[in-house]
Amino acid sequence: MKIINTMLPLLALPALTAAAQQRQAADRPNVIFIYADDIGYGDLSCNGSTTIRTPNVERLAQEGVRFTNCHSAAATSTPSRYAMLTGEYAWRRAGTGIADGDAAMIIRPDRYTMADMFHDRGYATCAIGKWHLGLGDEKGKQNWNGSVGSCPNDLGFDYSFIMAATGDRVPCVFIENDRVYNLSPHSPIYVNYRKNFPGEPTGRDNPELLVMHPSHGHDQSIVNGISRIGYMKGGKGALWDDSKIAETLTGRAVDFINKNARRPFFLYFATQDAHVPRVPGERFRGKSGHGVRGDVMLEFDWSVGEILAAVKAAGIEKNTVIILSSDNGPVIDDGYADGAVEALGDHRPWGDYRGGKYSAYEAGTRVPCIVRWAGKVEPKVSDELMTQLDWMASLGALIGAKLPAGAAPDSDNHLQAWLGGDKGRDYFVGQNAQNTLSILTHEWKYIEPSDRPGYNKNVNIELGNNREPQLYDMIHDPAESRNVAALYPEIAAQLAAKLNEVKDNRVNQPLTTTP
Question: Are 253 and 399 in a shared domain?
Fold first, then answer.
């Protein structure tokens, strides 16, 4: 097990000379990930939305490279985050599906991660926000009243302040390094994902106690008047305030920037917004005109503004790469009757694309993405095919890291493309919630046959599963409105063969498709 640093790292470093700081800046720029949750390509005004304005994100886009064809590694959270932090497609590993709040840590401590890569290059490393990759060494066996066991600090992060899973899953507490934050010994925490604790109310049995009612599922333990997935009791004083999650996490991220501005750092800042339950802070409530989901979009934009302001105030803008993206596509009703569907109006979180979160169609993984490096990267819009899977190898090249054998096996170095130069990927393999795979090139998209359900009525999203192979012309039909597999059988066969090659993990060769 890696040693856990129980404080924010490097609070008292010796002063560096101006020349040393300049050399350090040239060799090892700071890197900040701002990783949104369930925010779609069409949610942000920089991508053309005229219904909800996100001015801080707009400013970031105006000062950086805005990618219009960038993809998360999967259409759901856990596999996207696994792939991004390890450089490996999540579908290659069992147990990388959507994780419960009491899941064991999915990335094992002996696995080399992106945080290890930065740490080995002398960076201060930090994870703030949503984790959703498990904790401890065995499901349901975490010691929530002591050390939870394996945690982000065992994966290369010097400091972590996280939510164990998601806002709608217990335990509803923050974890600082390997321990529940602000836990009182007089109110210990108990968590169970199989059965309730005697006498504890639930959303199913006690709806009169709710301030937000579930629309489907989400009817187990009640915390702050909101019923969740899973059961818990205790933890008084340690429970988060849903309306202040963004404020708390953003404050921790800003604090880390301020304390580590004199040395290279890597900050993984993963927001709760716009995941359910959506409880915007008071300053954002009712301000968007599109209900609580619109309000938390404003809250997300505020968080971005706070990060930008902290970087500027620290005088490190020209030595800091900021990457903003999302873990998967959007969903409107994801389990709570919060009025988001009724208040959506003309807002189109999926933009011009089909599907959404959970889906093999384009809106499942095509996500917002911006890279800003002030003074080093010229602002532009890029339509190159990009994927978060490549961040590990590309940023490794940026900081001069040498990855050990076997690390980041599916991550390719496209650094120059991320900086607005060279072309991106030839192809990318996507994954939906039912593990149906697709292969996407700049021109074509092929979705493998699947006998899984084609539609999730709870969330009102097409999942992209079909017993027949699907082929879409992404140049002339990016909305995937017409399956042309029967018209171009040679293209479908070529892409199916390439997908099978990638699944078999054979040596990759360049892909060219000809009718």
Answer: yes
Instruction: Find the domain containing 499 and state its range.
Output: 428-503
Q: Where are the alpha helices (DSSP H) in 336-435?
A: 340-343, 391-399, 415-418
Peptide bond into 274 cis (omega under 30): yes
Establish if 223 belongs to a structural domain: no
3-state secondary structure at position 393: helix
- Domain boundary (380, 398, 418) is at 418
Pick from 66, 93, 3, 45: nearest CA to 503: 93
State yes or no: cis peptide before 171, omega within 30 of 0.
yes
Residues 106 and 170 in one domain: yes
**Contact (Cβ atoms closer than 8 angstroms) between residue 169 and residue 129:** no
The domain spanning residue 108 has which CATH number? 3.40.720.10
Quickly count: other Cβ atoms within 10 Å of residue 422's Cβ.
11
- Sign, CA dihedral 136-138-139-140, equals negative
Q: From 385, 418, 451, give the residue that closes a domain.
A: 418
Beta bridge partners of 470: 447
Among the listed residues 105, 99, 80, the one whose alpha carbon sits nearest the alpha carbon of residue 90: 80
Looking at the fold, whether 474 and 390 belong to one and the same domain comes out as no
Residue 225 lies in a domain: no
CATH classification at residue 463: 3.30.1120.10
pLDDT in tens, the chain (515 residues): 343 443 344 333 344 444 444 455 557 999 999 999 999 999 999 999 999 999 999 999 999 999 999 999 999 999 999 999 999 999 999 999 999 999 999 999 999 999 999 999 999 999 999 999 999 999 999 999 999 999 999 999 999 999 999 999 999 999 999 999 999 999 999 999 999 999 999 999 999 999 999 999 999 999 999 999 999 999 999 999 999 999 999 999 999 999 999 999 999 999 999 999 999 999 999 999 999 999 999 999 999 999 999 999 999 999 999 999 999 999 999 999 999 999 999 999 999 999 999 999 999 999 999 999 999 999 999 999 999 999 999 999 999 999 999 999 999 999 999 999 989 999 999 999 999 999 999 999 999 999 999 999 999 999 999 999 999 999 999 999 999 999 999 999 999 999 999 999 875 556 656 56
Buried b (16+ CB within 10 A) or exposed e, 317-328: bebbbbbbbbbb
DSSP for 147-206, written as a single string? --SS-GGGGT-SEEEEESS-TTBS--BEEETTEETT--TTS-EEEESSSPPTT--BTTT-
Do 398 and 471 share a structural domain?
Answer: no
Element (H, E) at 382: strand 380-382
Which pTM value belongs to this model?
Answer: 0.94
Q: Which residues contact 385 (CB under 8 A, 6 or more apart)?
A: 69, 71, 424, 425, 426, 427, 428, 440, 441, 442
